[in-house]
From TrEMBL:
Keywords, alphabetical: Membrane, Plasmid, Transmembrane, Transmembrane helix
UniProt name for this protein: MFS transporter
Any one Pfam family match given in the protein's UniProt record, by short name: MFS_1
Upper lineage: Bacteria, Pseudomonadati, Pseudomonadota, Betaproteobacteria, Burkholderiales
Organism for this UniProt entry: Paraburkholderia sprentiae WSM5005
Keyword Transmembrane annotated: yes
A GO MF term: transmembrane transporter activity
Transmembrane regions: 20-45, 57-76, 83-100, 106-127, 139-158, 170-189, 210-235, 250-269, 276-295, 301-320, 332-351, 363-384
């Protein structure tokens, strides 16, 4: 084997190790979120935790998760990311053990620390993901892994592990992938590489803020996530108002379609233009809300929730792709999960303040406003980006002529 081939093989192995290690950080960070019903079941069935507020624990964990996701990309050090990830994985393991031993009054602190560590892990994954050659495809593969793992783990935990070890041990099993990620941590890169681009500096403002186009795309992400979470929270009450038993199957169909959506996005994200695909997906979501507002039967509702589940994970990779292309410095990609998580968590809370929880029509109307706003922000971003690119091109031509 020639020296060039040996170098190429060694480089390929490092890249595989890097992808696996970063993927494990991604799965470990999202694991609690993806199988939260199992976590809730453990609380409900553990006598020591009967009086614990599930809502307070969820708020503590996911609010910390969202805030850290939004801030970590800016404040995490560019070096010693491996050490930072290792500390967060150890916090996962310690907090999981603490959940089985600490008194109920301490559990909010446990979930707060757990959510903070999860946010840092996902942020580190996105920092490395943003530097990959095909970030859209990579995030699609990672998202598919989270979805498949979440579904399998949700089945295995209550049916296999709980009978053997008891409900309280679910907290430890939730950190299984944190333990595996710790083993493979040595393959994770230790520092981030901030991309430099003359075009990006010209398009972006001089005070190092994001250019307007990626900001508008993040607004589109926010409104889309707002829509997604509101519908997710209120889908079951909507289903109960539809005559017949067919609508009750919406969750199973939606989860299966989510897996297919994530998997197919990994196959097609680099083959399909991002803007047309996002536009089509967001417009279909608008039609979904309009159709349900107009009235659907059980089969129609299940069909729309399947489409909703499919698009919810299919479009993520396309958003990453377009953010990567409009912001060569890759800061927007790193901000993506924070914007997504915070706006998603705000949605149901805001809706509950504006309308009664039994006013399904009012909920859907607010959701319709959110999803209509999303493609408008996306299209405005493209107009702004084209104009900015045109200005950069004219500046380049003028510079060339001056020589």
């Amino acid at each position: 084997m020639s020296s060039d081939n040996r170098v190429s093989a060694s480089s390929s192995k490092r890249e595989i190790g890097r992808t696996l290690a970063v993927g494990l950080l991604f799965v470990a960070g999202y694991m609690s979120n993806s199988i939260y019903p199992s976590f809730v079941g453990a609380i409900a069935n553990t006598s020591r935790l009967h009086d614990v507020s599930i809502g307070d624990l969820a708020t503590a964990e996911f609010l910390a998760f969202g805030v850290v996701l939004l801030l970590a990309g800016r404040y995490l050090p560019q070096r010693k990311l491996r050490l930072t990830a290792g500390i967060c994985l150890v916090i996962h393991l310690l907090m999981a053990y603490a959940m089985t031993k600490f008194p109920p009054g301490m559990l909010i602190i446990c979930r707060l620390l757990y959510g903070t560590a999860s946010g840092v892990l996902v942020s580190i994954a996105y920092i490395h993901l943003a530097q990959s050659a095909l970030p859209g495809r990579t995030v699609a593969v990672y998202t598919t892994s989270v979805m498949v793992t979440g579904v399998v783990w949700s089945l295995v935990l209550p049916k296999v592990l709980v009978p053997l070890f008891g409900y309280s041990q679910i907290f430890l099993f939730l950190t299984f992938f944190s333990f595996v990620a710790l083993i493979f941590l040595k393959f994770c890169p230790d520092e981030s590489i901030v991309k430099e681009s003359t075009d990006a500096r010209l398009v972006a403002s001089e005070n190092n803020k994001l250019a307007l186009s990626p900001v508008l795309i993040l607004c589109s992400v926010g409104m889309w996530s707002f829509f997604m979470m509101i519908f997710w929270v209120y889908a079951d009450p909507i289903a109960k108002n539809i005559p017949g038993s067919v609508a009750k199957n919406w969750l199973t169909i939606s989860l299966v379609c989510q897996i297919f959506g994530a998997a197919l996005s990994a196959l097609f994200v680099e083959k399909i233009p991002a803007i047309p695909m996002l536009s089509i997906g967001l417009c279909i979501s608008i039609i979904q809300i309009v159709a349900i507002l107009a009235g659907v039967d059980g089969i129609g509702f299940v069909m729309w929730t399947g489409i909703y589940g499919f698009l919810g994970y299919f479009l993520v990779a396309f958003y990453i792709k377009v953010l990567n292309k409009t912001d060569p410095t890759n800061r927007a990609v790193i901000l993506f999960p924070g914007v997504q998580m915070l706006t998603a968590s705000i949605g149901p809370m805001l809706v509950s303040k504006l309308v009664s929880e039994t006013n399904i029509s009012g909920v859907l109307k607010i959701d319709l406003i959110a999803i209509v706003t999303s493609p408008i922000c996306l299209w405005l971003a493209m107009v702004v980006h084209k104009r900015a690119a045109g200005r950069v091109q004219r500046v380049g031509l003028a510079g060339g002529e001056s020589h």
